[in-house]
Design brief:
Blueprint: E1 21-29, E2 32-39, E3 45-50, E4 58-59
Antiparallel strand pairs: 1-2, 2-3, 3-4
Length: 67
């Protein structure tokens, strides 16, 4: 018997790994350079912002599964 007040048990969709981000496109804005990146291994995408050329990019969005 199932209950109407239970939540499904979450299952990981893929094995966790260190993403290897590849830049698909970029454009300059008043805040810095916006980078659209994709993981070369699993296809996950996100949007990054590189505010200063000497600083590493920071994630602006959550990671979006490629499926």
């Amino acid at each position: 018997m199932t209950s109407l007040h239970t939540l499904p048990v979450p299952h990981p969709t893929s094995a966790a790994h260190e993403h290897a981000w590849l830049i698909e496109s970029r454009h300059a804005t008043s805040e810095g350079v916006v980078l659209y990146v994709r993981c070369g291994d699993c296809g996950t995408r996100r949007v990054d912002l590189q505010a200063l050329p000497a600083m590493p990019p920071a994630a602006l969005s959550a990671e979006l599964d490629a499926r």
